[in-house]
Design goal:
GO biological process, one term: protoporphyrinogen IX biosynthetic process
Shape: globular
Keywords: Heme biosynthesis, Lyase, Magnesium, Metal-binding, Porphyrin biosynthesis, Zinc
CATH class: Alpha Beta
Number of strands: 12
Helix content: 25-40%
Function: Catalyzes an early step in the biosynthesis of tetrapyrroles. Binds two molecules of 5-aminolevulinate per subunit, each at a distinct site, and catalyzes their condensation to form porphobilinogen.
Enzyme class: lyase
Number of domains: 1
Cofactor: Zn(2+)
Distance between the termini: 43 Å
Length: 325
Amino acid sequence: MPFPVQRPRRLRLSENIRRIVRETSLSVNDLVYPVFVTHGKGVARPVEAMPGICNYSIDQLLGVLQEVVGLKIPAIMPFGIPAAKDEVGSEAYADDGIIQQAVRAVKKEYPELMVITDLCLCEYTSHGHCGIVEDGCVLNDPTLELLARTAVSHAEAGADMVAPSDMMDGRVGAIRAALDAGGYENIPVMAYSAKYASAYYGPFREAAGSTPRFGDRKAYQMDPANAAEALREVRLDIEEGADIVMVKPALAYMDVIRRVKDACDYPVAAYNVSGEYSMVKAAAANGWVDERRIVLETLTGIKRAGADIIITYHAIDAAKWIKGL
């Protein structure tokens, strides 16, 4: 109908009208908080490139998680900083590895808090790559055995869910088989199905000490130019037993999130990664943006694109803002 019969502004005139017709609602239930955990006691070492984020020893992490639990954020994703690194990332699957210790402590203190563990080896290998390296190449199939061992060790420690982020072919199937064989058939797998070789990971690599010592990860992480490939990766992971699929990063890949959500009827996670976080923090520190508004707008956009789960370093602040605190 022609103007003035149709006036879209009628549904924007008050906050209550806007609320009642709002298509997308961001909830604390959508959030997962990534944390960095290291050996020692009394450690809360700030990550310079990620204002507000620290590498915590387990005792300090437990204090931080009191706020997470109080805000009813449903889950955390811990990343470990090992005591030592070697060619095969052995602390990743060691019984006394930093993640295994952290999971036990967290589940003892906060049994209701879901712990989703990342399985990648890059933080634990001396070369900084996500698998076994031979003659400068990351070997796919031998790496699967180490990823499966890591998954089982995390499940034994009490992890509620495991999340392979390495992008090795066939890793979801190998992990699913190992979990089932170990009696952990009820542990879900959240697959980093469409993980791109992105420039947005820089601050994370500072926090986790996971920058490759040579080359890059373009031979196993996805080309940022590709979207159809993401759908193939998602289908393969679902066929191998993934319970949740993920797109990483989020902001530059909202079209991929939407295509993945439209193509499958599985829960979709999106990782609002370190570079995305740090850009907002830097701009806010300079007074260039309103941090609260831009964070909530960004997270709402990620959810509107199709994400059911949002992994974000903004989770604590976002939860407070959502609750009006």
